[in-house]
């Protein structure tokens, strides 16, 4: 049993087994930063999400018109391939993404955003939808 655990730990350290790794190498430092407003409130809770793609040249064709995938943590997902004009010499990469979502049920939800075939994944944030209790008279 100890040998099996040692092999598993070695695999995790060397190969990142089970981790969400990108399929292709990313430009050095390219990452997504996810924010939400508000992150806690009473259900139904409407939350605005904002993602920023950072450390990517504004004209890097490999980041142009990528599929956007949101996982809201409550079973709802959204995937969209944007409608983009053909890439040209003055084309700029989209570096900001916005969406709103309503949490109808009480609970804590882990949310993240994934961009394109490169599978660049944002940080994960938690949203807390609380019960709206009215004090009894």
Write the layout of secondary structure elements.
Elements: H1 2-15, E1 31-37, E2 40-42, E3 45-54, E4 68-71, E5 77-80, E6 96-103, E7 107-115, E8 120-121, E9 125-130
Parallel strand pairs: 2-9
Antiparallel strand pairs: 1-3, 3-6, 4-5, 4-7, 7-8, 7-9
Structure description:
The protein has 137 residues and is mostly beta strands. It has one domain: Immunoglobulin-like. The chain is built from one helix and nine strands; from the N terminus they run αβββββββββ. The strands form two sheets. Strands 2, 4, 5, 7, 8 and 9 form a six-stranded mixed β-sheet that branches. It has a three-stranded antiparallel β-sheet with strand order 1-3-6, with no helix packed on it. A hairpin with a 4-residue loop joins β7 and β8. The chain is elongated, with a radius of gyration of 19 Å. It starts with a helix and ends in a 7-residue tail after the last strand.
